[in-house]
Amino acid sequence: MNNIEKVSPKMIVEHLDKLGNGNCYGNIVELGLYPGAFGFNYYLVEITESAFYGLVFQHSTSLSGLVPDPQDRPLKIAAQNALIVLLSKQKLNSNWDLEDIVKKTTEWLDKSIPLPALALRDSRGSELETGKWYLQDGCHRALGYAMVMQRDGLVYKPVKAYIATKTILNIK
Question: Which residues fall within 8 angstroms of residue 123, CB to CB, at 6 or more apart?
Answer without folding.
Answer: 56, 130, 131, 132, 133, 134
